[in-house]
Amino acid sequence: MAANSGPRPGSPAFDEDCMREICRFTARTLETPNPVPFGALIVDSRTGKRLLRATNNVLRENDPSSHAELRAVRLACKKLKIRSLAGYTMYTTCEPCPMCMSNALWARLDRVVFGATISDASRHCNQIHISAREVARRSDMPCKVDGPVERALCNQLFEHPNMQKAFRTWSATKGCGKRK
User: Fold this and answer.
1) Largest CB tally within 10 Å, which of 3, 82, 113, 164?
2) How far is CA 123 from CA 50, 56, 180, in A?
3) Is 95 a catalytic residue?
4) H or E element in which residue 70 lies
5) Which residues, listed in sequence order, are joined to residue 154 by a DSSP beta bridge?
6) How many Cβ atoms from other residues are within 10 Å of residue 24's Cβ?
7) Cα separation, 16 vs 50, whole angstroms
8) Strand, coil or helix: what is 108?
9) Can you tell me whether residue 117 is helix, strand or coil?
């Protein structure tokens, strides 16, 4: 990315662009048999170069840890053949759960930027109510947490009719949706 070709990495405008990008990518799942509202994008913190994107894959992999953020970190480390993502920022459509935020810390990400909040997600599916900022604050590993960014746009992923139908199916048959 050239210095004058758009918003600078880390700027509010750049953060908004990245969040819109991962929302568009994640929204593509809404027209599939396995819609998900959770997507993550990893970007070089200095240059803004996109490394990769991932979506939640819990149901398809039958793996409760296959959250978008964990998948993105795993795939990025494999792609780069390293175990530290120092120098990278993660954009995620929803505030990371404690598992995902802990993984971001262990991966040494510089920054995590989220869209929807844990409270937003909790209206639709079960959540662990410990903020990403709280997890980061209690860590010995530095990682800046910013958000919400493009919150309304990210919430549209949860509110899409196909996603609402999937949430009802999850809670009725899979045991992973919002319990009534």
Assistant:
1) 113
2) 31, 18, 11
3) no
4) helix 68-80
5) none
6) 12
7) 14
8) coil
9) coil
Within the chain, which residues score under 50 in pLDDT?
1-3, 179-180
Contact 150, 16 (CB under 8 A): yes
Q: Which two tokens stand for residue 129?
A: 């109510």
- pLDDT, tens digit, for every residue of 122-172? 999 989 999 999 999 999 999 999 999 999 999 999 999 999 999 988 766
Dist. CA 110–CA 44, nearest whole Å: 10
| Stated length of the chain | 180
Place of tokens 């410990």: 130
Whole-angstrom CA distances from 159 to 30, 82, 117, 165, 179 are: 10, 37, 14, 10, 17
Query: Which of the following is catalytic: 16, 21, 31, 69?
Result: 69
Report CA dihedral (70, 72, 77, 83) to the nearest 10 degrees: -30
Question: In sequence order, what are the beta bridge partners of 52?
Answer: 42
Amino acid in position 18: C
